[in-house]
Amino acid sequence: MKASFYTLGCRLNQAETAIIAKSFKNKGFEICDFGGPADLTVINTCTVTEQADAKCRQAIRKILRQNPDTYVAVVGCYAQMAVDTIRDISGVDLIVGNEHKLQIADHINGLQKQETTLVIHSPKISRGEFTIESYGLYDNATRANLKIQDGCNFVCSFCIIPMARGPARSRKLDDILHEANKLVELGHQELVLTGVNIGTYNSEDNTIITVLNELEKISDLKRIRISSIEPTTIPEQVINMMADSEKICKHLHIPLQSGDDRILKLMRRKHTSKEFTNFIEFVYKTVPDVGIGTDVMVGFPSEDNAAFINTKKFLADLPISYYHVFTYSDRKGTASNRMDDKIAHDVKKKRTAILIEQGDRKKRAFFENYLNKTRPVLFEQQNRDGHWTGYTSNYIQVALKSEENLHNTILPVLLGIVDGKNVIGTGN
Asked: Which of 14, 128, 331, 350 is the most exposed place for a label (fewest CB within 10 A)?
């Protein structure tokens, strides 16, 4: 029997899909590419924005058009929040919410198409520490995502994720290290720590500092990368470790959302603009060559032109190398959905374009700062024009032309010219 998988959304979803795929492989399924002939198709969904919801529905309908006989299982965040909407899509056989999605293989008792959609869903998600029975199955033995935490207690006014994923909870340390060692045995040279709010990790008084210390002891592990992490949850010790470590990547992604204090307060963010500035400057001064990314939201209710200009200037002045720009959309069940003074769509669209253009210039300037310098690159795959692509420690994507198979190798590369999203390497 063949099974295919499709993931929408964040690195945490990617980590969980890899774990789900391994559980099906353990039961004798052949894992095949999404979109091709398959007896089972699992779609792991996202609900962070209305656009994400729409992409989930589109993905479900697309696979049903391409392969109407496949058994379709929809799991994850959108499955947690929109059971009735998904059930109305003809051809969906199984819906599994976040509480049970990692055990979905245990709920497949046959792959006959169903007239009535089976729903496995719990409105309340368990609290407390957790373990994961399997480990991630990845196509390319280069980087692998390592789930250490789930859920969030922060409840930002625009965010639906605490409802979709439940309260903050941490994975037991021994369980993390068991999967980490297994992934390294399989050839992964870089592990990316993932979760909803990983800086809040706390299992039996072990913190993210403990996780980093223990992972550094794995001899064949070359890189440890910290994924998106909230600014108020990062101990200074982590930054000092990053500065001194040969394994911890010189890269952080720290969500900002707005550079205007009034908007930050309405968003229920845990930091002020000044606190964010102080922390970014501390990181920049402490960690040589650090790459810092952020998230910024445009068009939050009552974001007037002055607030937008504050954010634009704030981002321009900080030593941030890139940013992801999100356009605000109402989410039913969030506090911001009930706020007045919504921003017109055309205004949001224009502001989004302005910040994306500014972010592209910031990224290019960051890349240009490293031209004619040599940096180690972990190569992942070869693109259509024959270039091998991979990332430096500080998250510069590098492309290098080579007749050799560079997959899963770390090589020193002289960075030559900027070409769009890549820096072209000119040798080593």
From this structure: 128
Question: For residue 385, what are the domain limits?
Answer: 374-425
pTM: 0.93
Percent helix, percent strand, percent coil in the chain, to nearest 5: 35, 25, 40
Other CB atoms within 10 A of residue 192 CB: 19
Average pLDDT over residues 213-238: 97
Judgement on whether residues 275 and 381 belong to the same structural domain of the protein: no
Residue 87 CA to residue 83 CA, distance in Å, equals 6
Residues 14 and 108 in one domain: yes
Q: Are 286 and 208 part of one and the same domain? A: yes
* Euclidean distance between CA atoms 181 and 408, whole angstroms: 17
Q: Which amino acid is at 40?
A: L
Same domain, 196 and 223: yes
DSSP H helices, 195-304, are 208-216, 236-244, 261-267, 273-286
| CB neighbour list of residue 110: distance below 8 Å, 6 or more residues apart | none
Q: How many CB atoms lie within 10 A of CB 51?
A: 12
If you count them, how many residues does the chain have?
428
Q: Where are the beta strands (DSSP E) in 65-208?
A: 71-76, 92-96, 118-120, 143-147, 149-150, 169-170, 190-194, 202-203, 206-207
Closest Cα to residue 17, out of 175, 184, 153, 138?
Answer: 138
**pLDDT tens string 98-140:** 999 999 998 887 888 878 999 999 888 888 999 998 888 877 7
pLDDT per residue over 232-289, tens digit each?
999 999 999 999 999 999 999 999 999 999 999 999 999 999 999 999 999 999 999 9
Residues 379 and 357 in one domain: no
Q: How far apart are CA 157 and CA 169, in angstroms?
A: 20
Domain match, 188 and 206 both? yes
Q: Is residue 424 over pLDDT 80?
A: yes
Q: What is the DSSP string of 23-66?
A: HHHHTTPEE--TTSS-SEEEEEE--SSHHHHHHHHHHHHHHHHH
One domain, residues 58 and 178:
no
Please indicate, yes or no, if residue 276 is contained in any of the structural domains: yes
Residue 44 domain-assigned?
Answer: yes
Alpha-carbon distance of 99 to 166, in angstroms, equals 9
Q: Are 8 and 59 in contact (CB under 8 A)?
A: yes
Is residue 141 over pLDDT 80?
Answer: no
Q: What is the domain count for the chain?
A: 3
Regarding whether 195 and 341 lie in a shared domain, the answer is yes
